[in-house]
Design a protein that fits this description.
- It is a single chain.
- This protein is α/β, with parallel strands linked by helices.
- It has a single domain, classed as Rossmann fold.
- The protein contains four helices and five strands; from the N terminus they run αβαββαββα.
- A five-stranded mixed β-sheet has the order 2-1-3-4-5, sandwiched between helices.
- α2 crosses α4.
- About 10% of the residues have low confidence.
């Protein structure tokens, strides 16, 4: 059931993208903005913090929500490789899904959203977190 919810959320982000350009948004996410990363299931927030630092995303991560201008929320899911996938495809990698959104804490407006689906992820949550960080960085360059 949880997988269906994640997949539905991912589908919605693909069909109705929420990444709003800086020109359209009143509260645009800009380099140097202070962001708070909310606690996420399965510790995905930890992977996301690490990925943002690794990819050198120009955001300032703060530990207190009150000090932030924006908040990153999200969810992730891992599906381990089943016996059939291991035997038939000789593939032991897990399938990973993750969705994040960045909202302005003052207005509540979602200024960025991204969803990633990796069918065969060698590095698990790290791969999806790095994909999210990469797309945040690309968005900030616009």
């Amino acid at each position: 059931m949880r997988r269906i919810g994640i997949n539905l959320l991912a589908f919605m982000f693909c069909v109705f993208p929420l990444g709003i350009s800086a020109k359209e948004s009143k509260s645009a996410l800009k380099p140097g903005a202070k962001v708070f990363i909310a606690s996420m299931p399965d510790g995905f927030d930890t992977y996301l913090k690490s990925a943002i630092e690794k990819k050198k995303v120009p955001l300032t991560i703060v530990e207190a929500r009150e000090k932030a201008d924006f908040e990153i929320t999200g969810a992730s899911e891992t599906q381990k490789a089943g016996a059939a996938k291991k035997i038939i495809r000789l593939n032991w990698h897990s399938a990973e899904q993750a969705s994040i959104s960045i909202a302005d804490l003052k207005s509540g407006e979602v200024v960025f959203a991204y969803s990633v689906n990796k069918e065969s992820s060698a590095h698990g949550k790290q791969s999806t977190a790095e994909a999210c960080a990469k797309h945040i960085k690309e968005y900030l360059k616009q």
